[in-house]
Design a protein that fits this description.
Elements: H1 2-103
C-alpha cells in the first residue's frame, strides 16, 4: 500500500513537472514570437519588397533589351536605306552620263600611225 501511495505521489510530481515545463515553453515561445515579430518579420518584409523590386527591374531590363534590339535593327535598316539611296544616286548619275555620251557628237580619235 505504501508503494501505491508513493507511485501516486511520483505520478503527481511528474504531472506537475510536465505542467511546469509546458508553462515555461509557452513563455519562451511568447518571447521568441515577440522577437520574431519585431526583428525577423521586418527583415522578411524587406526581403519581399526587394524581391519584388528585383523582379520589376529584371522585367524592365528585358523590355529595354528588346527595344534596343529593335532600335539596332532599325539602325541597320536606316544604314541599308542610306546605302541603297547612295547606290540609286550613283546609278542615276551613271545613266545620265551614258545618255549624255550617246547624244553628244562623237569625237574623232587621232589615227594611229603604223611604224612599219
Amino acid at each position: 500500500m505504501l508503494g501505491t501511495l508513493i507511485s501516486f505521489f511520483a505520478l503527481a510530481v511528474a504531472f506537475g513537472a510536465l505542467w511546469f515545463a509546458g508553462e515555461a515553453n509557452k513563455r519562451a515561445e511568447f518571447q521568441h514570437k515577440k522577437f520574431f515579430d519585431s526583428h525577423v518579420r521586418g527583415i522578411s518584409d524587406m526581403v519581399k519588397v526587394l524581391v519584388k523590386t528585383v523582379k520589376d527591374i529584371s522585367s524592365a531590363v528585358q523590355r529595354l533589351d528588346k527595344e534596343v534590339d529593335l532600335l539596332t535593327e532599325d539602325d541597320e535598316k536606316v544604314e541599308l536605306f542610306k546605302k541603297i539611296s547612295i547606290l540609286e544616286d550613283t546609278v542615276s548619275e551613271l545613266q545620265a552620263r551614258i545618255d549624255g555620251v550617246g547624244h553628244a557628237p562623237a569625237e574623232k580619235k587621232p589615227a594611229r600611225r603604223k611604224l612599219l
